[in-house]
Amino acid sequence: EKGGFASFMEKEINDQPEAVAQTLLGRAGLDGKLQLDELRIDPSQLKAVDKIIVLACGTSAYAGQVAKYAIEHWCRIPVEVELSHEFRYRDPIVNANTLVVAISQSGETMDTLMAARYAQEQGAKVLAICNTNGSTIPREADAVLYTHAGPEIAVASTKAFLAQITAAYLLGLYLGQLRGNLFTGQIRDILADLAKVPAKIQTVLDDSDQVKKLARTMADTRSVLFLGRHVGFPVAMEGALKLKELAYIHAEGFAAGELKHGPIALIEEGQPVFVIVPSPRGRNSLHAKVVSNIQEIRARGAKTIVIAEEGDTAVQAYAEHVFYIPETPTLLAPLLATVPLQVFACELATAKGYDVDQPRNLAKSVTVE
Ligand code: F6R
Fold first, then answer.
1. Model's pTM, two decimal places?
2. Ligand 1 centroid from CA 155, angstroms
3. How far apart are alpha carbons 212 and 217 in whole angstroms?
4. Per-residue model confidence (pLDDT) at position 113
5. What pLDDT does residue 110 have?
6. How far apart are the first and last CA of the chain?
7. 364 noted as active-site residue
């Protein structure tokens, strides 16, 4: 049942092209009209939404952060992303025009369930993005968008994460269409780019030997930092979380722009730092800024491990290792940039002899607060 892989985790990492393809399958017409699995909210209410709050924990919350960038850009609706356990205890501002998007692989995470219930009590509508059919969170939600990643057995989330991000993009396109923020042609172009993602994930997987090789040389590493910017920021956080969970190595993700505000003090000779570099084709100047961050940490002795877009030669001079991902629009890049980080954590943990499917102290679904 592990399909020839040594662990469920490895299998699930390799399932990702299919997981994303399944989540896209039959969902969105070229006009962006999304087939939601269950819709107990009137579309006119969705049109009136003036704020979205994404509630989730752990990896699912990082999917929510990616969703924020896409939905705000496409739909011009403010999106807050909040950890479910923080939301409920801070007297949040929620009303009938708030759409809460509860993201949960298991659909049973107690904190997310309780936060969604609380939001409903305040009059908000809840839309669940969930991987487990019939679980509690989607049962109680007003609308449901299932991720079709298939059962995720390994405790650490991989394919569910990419499927959650994919589902969130579809939701963004749907809201953009419904509210008239996106033209049909724009939606069609984004859907066409999304349709190409599964094959690109496969390319990343096929090219992952060097990542694995590097991971095996780093079994004695005590700390790894991850830097990212824009949608690369949640990817950095996710890369750090995978390494903590699986390899029990201290890891931190930072927004690259924060470097000078503190984290650069951590850089000393030999400190490994992953840097997720935005596409040089992006219309903002973020690529140059992140490249200059790589220079700064390299000058202080960091071992720089760079994830960059194919053809980005600017990073080579400052990178000890570069792993390339295929070209894709910036907002969709997390679906590719995350993959080498998952492979790295899985391989490093395996090299240390750890059980990657059942990391110590963790449970697949956290049904207590
Ligand atoms: C990380 C991981 C956890 C879960 C979190 C939320 O690899 O698996 O951080 O993402 O416990 O779980 P769900 O998505 O089931 O609500």
1. 0.97
2. 8
3. 9
4. 97
5. 96
6. 32
7. yes
Residue 62 is predicted with a pLDDT of: 98
Taking the centre of ligand 1 as the mean of its atom positions, its distance from the CA of residue 103, in whole angstroms, is 10
Instruction: Tell me the DSSP string of 93-113.
Output: ---TTEEEEEEESSS--HHHH
Q: What is the pLDDT of residues 76-97, one digit of tens each?
A: 999 999 999 999 899 999 999 9
Catalytic residue among 33, 244, 352, 364: 364
Would you state the structure tokens that stand for residue 50, as one six-digit string?
A: 């003036």
Closest Cα to residue 88, out of 132, 57, 50, 130? 57
Q: Where are the beta strands (DSSP E) in 23-67?
A: 38-39, 51-56
Ligand 1 pocket, CB under 6 A: 57-60, 104-106, 109, 112, 156-157, 241, 245, 365-366
- The pLDDT tens digits for 173-196 are 999 989 999 988 899 999 999 999
Which pLDDT does position 282 carry in this prediction?
81
ipTM for the predicted complex: 0.97
In percent, the amount of the chain with pLDDT more than 70 equals: 99
- Quote the strand ranges of the chain, DSSP E: 38-39, 51-56, 79-83, 98-104, 125-130, 143-146, 223-228, 250-255, 272-276, 303-309, 321-325
**Of ligand 1's atoms, which has the minimum distance to the CA of residue 57?**
6
| Ligand 1 centroid to residue 363 C-alpha, Å | 9
Closest CA to 355 of 154, 151, 159: 154
Mean pLDDT of the chain: 94
Burial pattern 327-363, b for ≥16 Cβ within 10 A else e, equals bbebbbbbbbbbbbbbbbbbbbbbbbebebbbbeeee
Residue 333 has pLDDT above 90, yes or no: yes
Q: What is the mean pLDDT of residues 103-115?
A: 97
Q: Give the whole-angstrom CA distance, residue 80 versus residue 235.
A: 17
Which regions of 202-348 does DSSP assign to beta strands (E)?
223-228, 250-255, 272-276, 303-309, 321-325
Ligand 1 atom showing the smallest separation from residue 158 Cα: 7
Helix-helix angle 184-206:334-351, to 10 degrees: 20
